[in-house]
């Protein structure tokens, strides 16, 4: 049973850099899309970006200038850095495993999620 | 387009059938996946692909798709199904994930 365990600083000041890490236990690291998603209080889910085992990344265009996602395959971990945070970055941040399938057409889904980390940005 | 559109709220009487929909151009290319989220919890995958349920998801949950619209149907809704539901897919380019805005399901 694959599990994702995530951690990182929960309280930041404006202009600081958010840093979170997600460790993958019980499964392979290769062949998947490893994503970060966030959810502001009372709002919906927003995809931040993804990385695969070889380090190829895709980022949400709205956050691209501030986001860096990296991977450490030796530890089966991937990390998120979000720079110059503001109060608008206050959210629960999730890591998740994504994969692709095919049945007449392609489909993508996120089948395993971390428990979430609450990040608050406040002066 | 990279947007997925959902109705903000839907209600259903206990034991009845409810359909939650998700619209977007990318759904002409990719099947949607569906997630259930209860307060204070991480999302849980309930439907993926054409109509696949992960292990442990009750068979009252089903999915379908037509054109640019994906649907999640709960047949015989239970009190424990009250939650927020999100659809998800790649965008039309295939490079980015997109989420719908979510539908709050109330079971009356």
Question: How is this structure best described in words?
Answer:
The complex is a heterodimer of chains A (about 120) and B (about 110). Chain A is mainly β and about 120 residues long. Chain A contains no helices and 11 strands. In chain A, the strands form 2 sheets. In chain A, strands 2, 4, 5, 6, 9, 10 and 11 form a 7-stranded mixed beta sheet that branches. In chain A, strand 9 (about 90-105) and strand 10 form a beta hairpin. In chain B, a hairpin with a 6-residue loop joins strand 4 (about 35) and strand 5. The termini of chain B are far apart. Helices cover about 0% and strands about 45% of the residues of chain B. Chain B is built from no helices and 10 strands. Chain B is mostly beta strands and about 110 residues long. Chain B has strands at about 5, 10, 20-25, 35, 45, 60-65, 70-75, 85-90, 95-100, 105. The interface of A and B includes residues 58, 60, 94, 107 and 108 of A.
Name its key features.
heterodimer; A: 123 residues; mainly beta; 7-stranded mixed β-sheet; 4-stranded antiparallel β-sheet; 11 strands; globular; B: 108 residues; 6-stranded mixed β-sheet
- Following the backbone from N to C, one meets helices and strands of chain A in this order, namely EEEEEEEEEEE
- Stretches of chain A where pLDDT is under 50 for at least 5 consecutive residues are none
Q: Taking Cα atoms only, what radius of gyration of chain A do you get, to the nearest Å? A: 14 Å
- The percent of residues in helical segments of chain A reads under 10%
Integer average pLDDT of chain B: 96
What percent of the residues of chain B sit in helical stretches (DSSP H or I)? Answer: under 10%
- Strand proportion of chain A, as a percent range, falls in over 45%
Beta-strand share of residues of chain B: over 45%
